[in-house]
Amino acid sequence: MQQTYGREQHVQQRLLDEIIGFNRSFVEQSKFEPYLTSKFPDKKFVILTCMDTRLIELLPASMNIKNGDVKMIKSAGGVVSTAFGGIMRSIIVAIYELGAEEVLVIGHHDCGMSNINPHQIKSKFLERGIPEDTLQILENSGLHIEHWLRGFSDVTEAIKSSVSLIRHHPLVPKIPIHGLVIDPKTGKLDVVDEGYRN
Questions:
Q1: Do 47 and 106 meet the contact criterion of CB atoms below 8 Å apart?
Q2: Domain residue limits at 24
Q3: Which parts of the sequence bind Zn(2+) (predicted)?
Q4: Nearest to 77 by CA among 168, 155, 172
Q5: How far is Cα 116 from Cα 80, in angstroms, rounded to an integer?
Q6: Residues comprising the binding site for Zn(2+)?
Q7: Residues 31 and 10 both lie in one domain
Q8: Other beta carbons within 10 Å of 40
């Protein structure tokens, strides 16, 4: 196991070297200048969406969003799973400290979280060297790992559930909270919950 980890670490080091090398020339050639903006979103809204690789450029392009326009939060599935976790904290900070006046929760079709298998992930923990007793300690301390890792079967319902959680959160003011689903191939957006009506 140690030998495999060493090989992975070597590959990661080479990737990091490549990134830092590119970054050095990016800064030296002032390629950052077109991206200069403030930390406050010009369009005054925050987006919670999935970390899917297909959305990195497609989502902003499909919404006419440029650097500086919005606050963007990404997570697996683009959903809020708990009322007082890091995702919800980020939304609240965006509202109260960074001037966001609306929230858009955007899921997507063909999401990996819609067919995730928590049992298989637990097996992969063990394959990658996480001790069985570590998993048992976590379970004994109240974390039901498979429940924590579970995804959803219907992206529309998952988005509506997140919108409802945000909208009824005790620390979120009365602002529009919207739910949308994007097609990761075409960029087409469908509104599944419009926040102006609530």
A1: yes
A2: 1-35
A3: 50, 52, 108, 111
A4: 155
A5: 17
A6: 50, 52, 108, 111
A7: yes
A8: 13
List CB contacts of 107: < 8 A, sequence separation 6 or more.
49, 50, 77, 78, 79, 155, 156, 158, 159, 179, 180, 181, 182
Structure tokens at 109: 């079709």
Q: pLDDT, tens digit, for every residue of 43-79?
A: 999 999 999 999 999 999 999 999 999 999 999 999 9
Q: How far is CA 63 from the centre of its chain?
A: 17
Does residue 80 sit in the same domain as residue 163?
Answer: yes
CB burial of residue 185 (10 Å; 0-12, 13-18, 19+): exposed
106 with 162, same domain: the answer is yes
Taking Cα atoms as reference points, which of 47, 10, 1 lies closest to residue 180? Answer: 47
Residue 40 structure tokens: 């406050």
Residue with tokens 């999935």: 50
For the annotated binding site, the residues are 50, 52, 108, 111
Its pTM stands at 0.87
- Co-location of 42 and 8 in the same domain: no
Same domain? For 53 and 66 the reply is yes
